[in-house]
Design brief:
There is one protein chain. The protein has 2 domains: 48 residues, no CATH class; 96 residues, Immunoglobulin-like. It is built from 1 helix and 8 strands; from the N terminus they run E-E-H-E-E-E-E-E-E. The strands form 3 sheets. A 3-stranded antiparallel beta sheet has the order 3-4-7, with no helix packed on it. A 3-stranded antiparallel beta sheet has the order 6-5-8, with no helix packed on it. The longest helix is centred in the first third of the chain and has 19 residues. The chain is elongated. It binds zinc ion. The site of zinc ion has 8 residues, from loops.
Length: 156
């Protein structure tokens, strides 16, 4: 006698299926194994399609982005500034989840920098998109430079 791998009741020696709970005693006789095997290529294709195997490194494409300051607006009783940049994406890829740094300076002298991110922001291939950043008021600052630290890309 042997015991069922599923319900632990005693079953006949060499039985491939338990007579109590119908559990298969050999994994390769279990039809469920085959559905998993058949599903596997589908899951791999889906992951590939989602771009999880194709993430691009932004540092390789940095030079293909151009940034232009569009406007600077005082807000919150002049305690902050809203700066809008036009970002041009000269790559064949769509990018999103931007991480950036804004450097505040006065006549070339660096005064402050802040790091932030905007995961809702998206830019399509070979197109432009506006990015508005909020920068805390820095006395004397008259120039703000946007530096893209990172962007994520999907396959399309
Ligand atoms: Zn059983």
């Amino acid at each position: 006698m042997q015991t069922c791998k599923s319900c632990r009741k005693e079953i006949e020696n060499g039985a491939t299926k338990c007579s109590y709970c119908q559990a298969h005693q050999n994994w390769y006789k279990n039809p469920q194994i085959y559905s998993v095997v058949f599903m596997l290529p589908l899951f791999i294709f889906m992951y590939w399609n989602m771009g999880l195997f194709n993430n691009k490194d932004f540092s390789d494409f940095e030079s293909e982005f151009t940034l232009t300051e569009e406007k600077v607006i005082d807000t919150n009783g002049s305690k902050a500034k809203l700066i809008t940049y036009k970002v041009k994406n000269n790559t064949e890829y769509k990018w999103n989840r931007i991480s950036y740094e804004v450097v505040s300076s006065h006549n070339g002298e660096l005064l402050a920098s802040m790091v932030d991110s905007n995961y809702a922001w998206v830019i399509q291939p070979n197109s432009e998109s506006l990015l508005t950043v909020e920068v805390a008021f820095v006395p004397k600052a008259n120039k703000w430079q946007l530096i893209i630290k990172d962007l994520k890309s999907d396959r399309f």
